[in-house]
Amino acid sequence: MNMTIPIEVELHTKITESGTTEDSSLSSSGTLYRKNDAVYLRYEEVINEADKVNTTIKIQNDEITIIRQGAVSMRQRFIPGAEKEGTYGSPYGPIQIATRTEKVDFDWNEAELKGHLSMEYQVLFQGEEAGYHQMLIKLRGEER
User: Fold this and answer.
1) Does domain 5-78+104-120+133-141 have CATH number 3.40.190.150?
2) pTM summary value
3) What is the mean pLDDT of residues 55-83?
């Protein structure tokens, strides 16, 4: 994969916090490309008409880095079995968060132009557990 591939992105998240679960879904168009030994996924999230977030996900072996810029800003690394600190931008300034990643699975079938990225992780806010996240991104190459 030396070129940029236009893709359809289907993002599904499930967040469990204090005994309640919230599900959300998002569909978007994006691109997938390889640079050196990493795969990059880029897409735009539209929160409402005025607020948009550009998301870049870097996938390198079992390490995932998510960078979000726009109405929400965030930079976070995810490595299975590890706790990693990151930042979350808020109207009040940057907030330090951490994630404890349990599972990461990435698969991309070049011939069929489809794949997925799934992750499960615990979010920690000031050292306290603040929600268990399950994320599934389904990827499908667009017809050229």
Assistant:
1) no
2) 0.90
3) 93
